[in-house]
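User: Predict the complex.
Assistant: Input components as received:
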Amino acid sequence: MKLTAYHRAKSLADARRLLKELGPTAMPLAGASSHSFVKNDDEKIGVDIADIGFEGVECKNGHFVVGANTRIADLQAFHAPGWVLDRVALRFVSQPLRNMTTIGGNISRVFPWNDFPVALLALNATMTISGEAKTSHLASVFFDGQPSRLFQPGDLLTEISVPEIGEGSGFGYHKESLVNMDFSHLTIAAWIRREGRTIRDARVAVGAGVPLPCRLSALEAELVGKKMRRGGHRRRRGSASGRCFLERGSRIQQ
Amino acid sequence: MNIQFTLNGKLRTAEVEANTKLADLLRELGCASVKIGCNEGACGSCAVNVDGRLINSCLTYAGQVNGRTVETVEAIGSLDHPHPIQDALVEEGAIQCGYCMPGVILAAKALFDKNPSPTEEELAVALDGQLCRCTGYQKIESALRKLASEARS
Ligand SMILES: Cc1cc2nc3c(=O)[nH]c(=O)nc-3n(C[C@H](O)[C@H](O)[C@H](O)COP(=O)(O)OP(=O)(O)OC[C@H]3O[C@@H](n4cnc5c(N)ncnc54)[C@H](O)[C@@H]3O)c2cc1C
Ligand code: FES
Ligand code: FES
C-alpha cells in the first residue's frame, strides 16, 4: 500500500469528518500493521485514529467492554475473572506487534490468519459501529463476510462487548503454528456451558486454513447433550479438526 | 509533511513523505542501530521504543510518531558506557554478527525496566519476535537469565 497523505484525527467526530471529506481512498489507520499485506500500488489516504480514544477494557453487567483502539498488549496485560482474551493475545505474533496493533484493526479487515475473529465468534461478542447512529452486530453476523460491508463512509468500529465466562461455562483456544511468529495453520476456539457433566450449549469457531473464520454449527449441535469426560477432548481432537475442514469445504462448494 | 518528535532525548524535525517508514527516517537521521531485515514485521531487527512501547519501525509510518518520543539503542549505552544488558550479552559471548542485537537489547530493556527479575516465561514473552540468525538463542537467553537472577539475589 502507498500512503499519499496522512492525517491524524483528534476525536471520533474529527475522524468521521475526515474520512467522509477525503472520499473513498481514505481509510482508518490504527496500528497500520496490515499495510504490508496490501498491493504496493494501492494508493490510500491514511486517517490515523490512534488519538481518538476507545482504548482499554471495562467490566459492565457481566460483559467486558473493549475499546476498538485497545492494543493487543493491553488485552494481554488485563486480567479478571471470566476474561480470556489475555490467553488469545499471548499467542498473537510477537511482542512488538502486540504493542502496535489494535483489536479493532484485527477484526475490521479480516485476513484468513487473524486470531481475534475466531475467539470472538466462540465468545458470541457484539461489535458496535459508530456512524450517524450506533449499530451493534453479533459476531456471527459481523464475520459472515468481510465486516467492511457493514460500514458506511466515515463509520468506525468503536466497541467490542465480550460476555464474561460465567459459572458452569468454559473457553478453549488453540492456534496451530510452529511459533507465535508463524501465521496460524488452524485456529480453533470453543465455548461451552454445562449442567453437571452434560453440555447444554456450545459454540465452536475455526479460522486460518479457511477463507474466513466461521462457526461450526453441526459440531456445536453434536456436542449439546453429550456428557463431558476427563481427557475426552484429547481422544476426540483428531476427528474434530478433520470434521471442521469437511464442513467448511462443503460450505465453500455451495 | 513536517513532523516533530523527540529522538533519544532531543527534539527533531523532519520533512517526510506520507509513505515514509520510521525505520528509513531513523537511519537517515543517523541511527544506524535500526536495522532493516525483513521489512515486513517478522524479524524485530528494526524494533524501537515509541512512547515506551517496543514496536517494529519498518511497519510504522514516520507521521505516526509526530509529537511522540522515540528511543533507539543509541540512547541506552555506548562502547564507553555500556548498559548492564549490553555488558551481560558481551560477557556471555551472546553476539555473533550483531544484526539482531539492537532489537534484543531494547526488548530486554523494556522488560527489565518494568520487572528487574523476570521469570523465564516473562523473558520468552518479551523477546517474542526478536529473531537471531546466528546464535541459536541459548547464549542470549543465559545472559539475560543471569541478569535476572543477579537482580533476585
Ligand atoms: C508479519 C505479521 C504477521 C501477522 N500474523 C498474525 C497472526 O498470526 N494472527 C493475527 O491475528 N494477526 C496477525 N498479524 C496482524 C494482522 O494481520 C493485522 O495486520 C493487524 O491485526 C491489523 O491491526 P492494526 O491495528 O495494525 O490495524 P490497521 O492495519 O491499521 O488496520 C487494519 C484494517 O482495519 C481498518 N480499521 C482499523 N481500525 C478500524 C476501526 N476502528 N474501524 C473501522 N476500520 C478500522 C483499517 O482501515 C484497515 O483496513 C500479523 C501481522 C504481521 C505484520
Ligand atoms: S525489519 Fe522490521 S520486523 Fe524485520
Ligand atoms: S547475532 Fe547475528 S542475527 Fe543475532
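Chain A touches chain B at residues 2-6, 8, 29, 31-33, 35-36, 45-46, 48, 50, 71, 73, 90, 93-97, 99-100, 180-181 (CB under 8 Å).
Let me know if you want any component modeled separately.
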